[in-house]
From TrEMBL:
GO terms for molecular function: aldehyde dehydrogenase (NAD+) activity. Belongs to the aldehyde dehydrogenase family. It comes from the Bacteria. It catalyses: an aldehyde + NAD(+) + H2O = a carboxylate + NADH + 2 H(+). This is aldehyde dehydrogenase (NAD(+)). Residues 17-468 form the Aldehyde dehydrogenase domain. SUPFAM superfamilies: ALDH-like. Its EC number is 1.2.1.3. The keyword Oxidoreductase applies.
């Protein structure tokens, strides 16, 4: 069995000072495939100190120098494409097609950041003042387990472009998939201390990074509960925070929608990445005037999905990350049954023939917006169908949630879809398809987070404004 005891601090791959271990399992078989050695407070402090020492020289680099280093990172990520894909599928359980999309997008973040490195990004005139946008300082980047290469590249690219040095804490639950990412970072050859990677749990590593006086900025993608802890930790030193947190996104199917287009859209939005996505559209709102038609179409679509080995080309739903995640999803399915939601497809237990591994039956409930399965983020292939009367009630139900990350609208009239989208409390709304852009802002309303990422909004999150006046 492999032991994963590789961190990247001050320009070197090093063993952890910490001794706590974490079992790494295959989502496909459920068996342990490695043991990860986690960092401790000593490791976290060493990484912050390395980033602090590197900050003056890095923040003083020219835009051309930063472009060159970002290009090296893009090339280094691309060179480890196959390793990143296979590791993601094995540990996380997402399908090869989805893993390929995640990994192929990863180098693009560095190339996008290169394009942001123009003089106007950093110097602007405001009346008699010259406004300089300067690096915030050392940035702690805390990333999730549902696509390590993507989230690390997305955050690190703009932080580095802004002139910040960074300490990255990938989720310990994604340590296997993060190994080729660590290799890519080490091979890119950035100056020592500019980019550091330490694996560890929230206590102590996350706690150190979010309270350390030399950390000026924290960016986290994670659960709402974890985001609240980070925000509290940041208060004493008034760290700047970007929080991309949970979601319980609605897919509003309007009464003029064609089931042939609306149903595949709703199912894809709800079950992307095996439902292990913060943007998953897990509440599907349907008009009462067409209730039975849409229930039947959605039930048939979910029941027809192939669940299986994520390495097989025709698999749509793979296994969940680990046994804890499997048990979590089963408990939610049980709560839906106990609270009286109607099971339209799926249900408890493993799919037949897939008793090994963390496979779940994609489950579709019909119920109300006050049931637990419609209120809480499940992070698995569980959807709730909720019936509404009229467009106003559809909007009210869609917005009746503590979250506001993403929303989806299906309609036969694109202009109407745009109008409804403007009424939804969500940071992003997609009409009639899974469309998006790395240049458009990404982030949530309400308890889905604080601040925005992607593109120019992403780099702005790592910059401070300084107005200089000359008499």
């Amino acid at each position: 069995m492999k032991t994963l005891n590789r961190h990247y601090v001050d320009g070197r791959v090093v063993a952890a000072h910490g001794t706590d271990t974490y079992p790494v399992t295959s989502a496909i078989t459920g068996e342990q495939i490695a043991e990860g050695v986690l960092g401790d407070a000593v490791d976290a402090n060493a990484a912050v100190e390395a980033a602090r020492r590197a900050l003056p020289a890095w923040s003083a680099t020219t835009l051309d120098q930063r472009r060159d280093y970002l290009g090296r990172l893009a090339d280094s990520f691309a060179a480890r494409r196959e390793d990143m894909i296979s590791a993601l599928v094995e540990e996380f359980g997402t399908t090869t097609a989805t893993a390929t999309f995640i990994v192929d997008e990863s180098p693009q973040w560095f190339l996008d950041a290169q394009r942001l490195l123009v003089e106007d990004t950093f110097v602007r005139q405001a009346g008699r003042a010259t406004v300089h946008r300067v690096p915030a300082g050392v940035a702690a980047l805390i990333t999730p387990w549902n696509g390590a290469s993507w989230s690390i590249a997305m955050k690190a690219s703009v932080a580095l472009a802004a002139g910040c040095t960074v300490v990255i804490k990938p989720s310990e639950r994604g340590i296997w998939q993060a190994q080729p990412v660590l290799d890519a970072i080490a091979a890119a050859g950035l100056p020592a201390g500019v980019i550091n990677v330490v694996f560890g749990k929230g206590d102590p590593v996350g706690g150190i990074l979010t309270t350390h006086p030399d950390v000026a900025k924290v960016s986290i993608t994670g659960s709402t509960a974890t985001g609240k802890i980070v925000a509290r930790n940041a208060v004493d030193t008034l760290k700047r925070v970007t929080l991309e947190l949970g979601g319980k996104s609605p897919t509003v199917i309007l009464d003029d929608a064609d089931p042939a287009q609306a149903v595949p859209f709703a199912v894809q939005a709800g079950l992307f990445n095996n439902g292990q996505a913060c943007v998953a559209g897990t509440r599907i709102l349907i008009p009462r005037s067409r209730e039975e038609e849409f229930k039947q179409a959605l039930s048939e679509a979910v029941a027809a999905l192939k669940v299986g080995d994520p390495r097989e080309a025709d698999t749509v739903i793979g296994p969940l990350l680990d046994r804890d995640q499997y048990d979590r999803v089963q408990s939610y399915i049980q709560s839906g049954i106990e609270e009286g939601a109607e099971v339209l497809a799926g249900g408890l237990g493993h799919p037949e023939g897939l008793e090994k591994g963390n496979y779940v039956r994609p489950t579709l409930f019909a119920g109300t917006n006050d049931q637990t399965v419609a209120r809480e983020e499940i992070f698995g292939p569980v959807l709730s169908v909720i019936t509404y009367d009229g467009e106003d009630e559809a909007v009210a139900i869609a917005n009746d949630t503590p979250y506001g990350l993403t929303a989806y609208v299906a309609t036969g009239d694109a202009a109407r879809g745009q109008r409804v989208a403007r009424r939804l409390q969500a940071g992003r709304v997609m009409v009639n398809g899974m469309v998006g852009s790395r240049d458009a802002p990404f982030g949530g309303f309400k308890q889905s987070g604080m601040g925005r990422e992607f593109g120019s909004w992403g780099i702005s999150a790592f910059l401070e404004e300084q107005a200089v006046f000359t008499a």
